[in-house]
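Dear support,

I submitted the protein below through the web form. The confirmation email said the job was done, but the results page showed an empty box. After a refresh the structure appeared. I'm attaching both so you can tell me whether what I see now is the final result or a partial one.
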Amino acid sequence: MEGLKAIAGLISIKFHLQKLTSRSQLCSAALPENHLIRTLMDDPHNAHNKLTPHSINTLTKHQKTIVKGHLIDSNNKLFGIFPSFSSLNLELDLGSRIVDIFSDRFSFNLVNREKNDKTRFQQLNEMTLHSSSSSHTAIIVTNASVKNDIATSVLHIHICDHPLTKMVHHAAFVTSTEAELFAIRYSISQAYSKENVSKIIVVTDSIHAAKKIFNDKSHPYQIHTTAILCELQQFFTTSQENSIEFWECPSHLKWRLHQSVNKDSKSFNSQPILPSKLSWDYCKKIDSDNIINLWKMTFQALDGKGRHFLDLVDDSCVDIEPSYIKGGPWLQSFGHSNPLCACATRAITNHAPIGEYCLQFFPNKEFKCSCGNYPIEIRRHILHECTHHNEYWNPRRDSLSHFVMFLIANPRAFAFIDNIQPDTPS
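What the results page shows now:
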């Protein structure tokens, strides 16, 4: 069953429950500081945290280590996370938001998926050419990358086609989205401080991060977004002509200005300084990664997947490991076709109508291979040696891609003969 669940991209229920438990312990960080639960917790960032008879603050260090409970676990986890939420900030109040007052002052120029990359490349060049003639327009190009748990944020500010400001910032134990938002936050602040700048153009490959700025719902980037909104409020109030545009620039375009920033963000190799607190989003990611790694370890170490589970490798000769991202690696290869998926699953688990299976469960039935060259029809013989299934040949049948090609070319392999249907991709 573990093998079938791995192919289907379904994590074991015990690991899923562990993941939900870890995430539930993080939920208290999203509560407002004046919430009753937050007032009971030992939170140094909580200005409303007052000593009450039921507060965790009344416990000694020894008592905290022996007392068990969800609130204690949440408190311990919250203590190692720096604040991210700011749901009661004035910038998020209805009627005071940027989207309510200055909805015509900001815009997003997104990539048109129906057009090719060359069109987007030309649009970016035309925008730069048009803006370079004006000393009132600041073009900001940002990028962020994460390496060795260190996020590097890089921004370049151009005015009149000349680099005016370059900034590099490192932060430990944050996600790339947070690093990108920090770069946008700092660059807007720098551009706003320049004289006569009335238009700001932000070019980024993480347009989803830029959209978070105007999202008034609770999310773990509010510390950055509320600071950006405050700067934009002042920028828009200064003059009715002031505006900001966000341009999406995918990294694979290798547009010259963004490529320069992208190169800078990957040229550093910093090491984290311990101890260091984690961001809420990074802690959530680490908990999820730990559960997935535990799933992979137990999948390889235990016999739950079955002793005859066919271990395959990817195109880089790395063992295929279970994952629930996008349905898992197996379904991504053959999940587009129901007959192909059924046949591949039978072959991988070795529960297929072949001689090896019949010999174990139906010894009275024929178990010899019909090719006459092997006394028992086993899976390896079908994949590598049988002359009846040789429509596609490649010695790397342990590769998932070649394994799938073999099944497509040989629809009778591992299939019930009476139920063979032509494989038509959906």
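Response: this is the final, complete result; the empty box was a page-load delay. The radius of gyration is 29 Å.
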